[in-house]
Amino acid sequence: MTVRPRPLAALFAACLAFAVSGLAARLDAQPLTHVALEPVRVCRASDQDQGPPDYDDPACETVSVFELDPQGRHIWARLRLPLDAAGLDGTGPYGLIVMGKMSSEVFLNGSRIGANGRPADDRAGEIAGRIDASLFVPHTLVRDGDNVVDIRMSSHRGWVRLASPIHAVLFGRYQDPTRTISAAYWPSLITFGVFLIGLVFFGVTAWRNEEREASLLLAAASLFAGSELLVESARGLVAYPYPFHDIRLVLITVCAAGFSLCLLAYLFKRMTRLAWLSRFARLSAIVLTMAVVVALMPGFDGKTAGVLFTAIAAGLAGSALWAIRRRPGAIGLVILFALTGSALWQFGSGFLDIGYFYTAAGILAFLIYQQAQSLVAERRQRRVETRRALQLEAALAQARQKSAPAQIQLVSAGRVDYVSSDRIVQLKAAGDYVELHFQDGATTLYTGTLGGLESELPPAFLRVHRSHIVNTLFVSALEREASGTGRLILANGTQVPVSRRIMPAVRTALASKAVDNAD
């Protein structure tokens, strides 16, 4: 398949636009200050509350900031926000960015600055807030030194319980939180072009019935990788309501599993001779292992990493076995899986955000190139086989006309023989020799190659296989295999393989010959 220049240019222009917009977001982003990462006071909240509670109440508790959890609860939390002159320097309005799976109402130094949704005692009363919200902070409320942030929060609308539902509370110049987040995702978005090209390329090759199963698997892998990238970067594109965050996290893990399973299925098909059912059984065992890992791992970064580690371990074990059996390309796969596993282990979530997508894009780009080379070679072979089919038709037509036999010069051990072509049934490659099969059943070895003799033979002879040339005068029958290939049955009982591409021409020519003989 040839990719047209204009769509390709448009695709890369779109990728460049993603990169430039992300870079602009990174350059425009102002420095941000985190709330202090220290134990915080937490009190029970009520719909009737008009402001922060008395945190000295014995009913309140002190928890780690990482244990702050509003899921299924309605609570108040007091956090300390340390600011210095550098943090208060610059121009423009101030803003407080609240990032987490919750609805919230925020007070700074005792004054309400705004709300993100509406926290409440139960699901019915709550209005879901956005996953990331920026609230305007008047200059008069901010002071140099310690500032107090009180947040009333609830999270009744999620359906997956997260280990860390509160992600960050940040202070800085007022800005759209999605621009801040997109700065972290833009390097990964560049790879989206590769995933889109892979989906189109492999989808078209599958639709055209060229390597259908392999092409479908790679098209699905491209779809999973591209979908995971879009879902992963969605937080940097739009501030969605917090209930969607659960769906986003599940989709990321599912897409990671789908991509890795499609890639493993492709490798099982390419590197083994296993039947479809055996390959399916192995993949099912990997899926079961992934399900156990997902159930045991805490946090969705851990679940996604666990899914990928499972696939990497399976691929590494299979590649090592294939390397021992000297399968082509197996050593390269061992290195790829080992390096990917090491990077995931060392960099963790950093690899999941960027390195994973570049690795996936690199693998798919290589497979696109490999498949394109294979298609070019296949089309070249089709042209050769089509030419041979035409030659076969001409040869059979020549045979029907009962043309005069030719004398063929054959050399063996310094001796030259002249053999009449009408005595030869078949020529077969035998290393550095050619094995001739005669009408009377005799066989003789002569020095040379099939390619060298092919040009000297009369039209009645045709090379139907790289190891076989047949005299069409002695073709008595044609049998078709279920795979689409065929076999020529010669008068001496020899069976010669016929390519699937040549089969229609052979069938037509032999049918014409049968009609002529009947006449």
Q: What would you say about this model in short?
A:
One of its GO terms (molecular function) is phosphorelay response regulator activity. InterPro entries: LytR-like, LytTR_DNA-bd_dom, MFS_Mycoplasma. The chain has 519 residues and is an alpha+beta fold.
Q: How would you describe the overall organization of this protein?
A:
By secondary structure, the protein is of the alpha+beta class. It has 3 domains: 144 residues, Sandwich (Jelly Rolls), CATH 2.60.120; 195 residues; 118 residues, Beta Barrel (OB fold (Dihydrolipoamide Acetyltransferase, E2P)). It contains 11 helices and 20 strands.
Topology:
Layout lengths: L4 H24 L4 E2 L5 E5 L16 E3 L10 E10 L10 E7 L2 E6 L2 E6 L15 E6 L7 E10 L11 E8 L3 H13 L2 H16 L4 H22 L9 H29 L4 H21 L3 H25 L5 H18 L1 H52 L6 E6 L2 E6 L3 E7 L2 E6 L4 E5 L2 H5 L6 E5 L2 E4 L3 E6 L5 E5 L4 E4 L4 H16 L1
Antiparallel strand pairs: 1-10, 2-3, 2-4, 4-9, 5-8, 5-10, 6-7, 6-9, 11-12, 13-14, 13-17, 14-15, 16-17, 18-19, 19-20
Helix pairs in contact: 1-2, 2-4, 2-9, 3-4, 3-9, 4-5, 4-9, 5-6, 5-7, 6-7, 7-8, 8-9, 9-11
Distance between the termini: 47 Å
Strand-pairing-aware structural class: alpha+beta
User: What is the strand tally?
Assistant: 20
Outline, from the CA principal axes? rod-shaped
Note the main attributes of this structure:
DNA-binding; 519 residues; OB fold (Dihydrolipoamide Acetyltransferase, E2P); 5-stranded antiparallel beta sheet; alpha+beta; MFS_Mycoplasma; 11 helices; rod-shaped; LytTR_DNA-bd_dom; Jelly Rolls
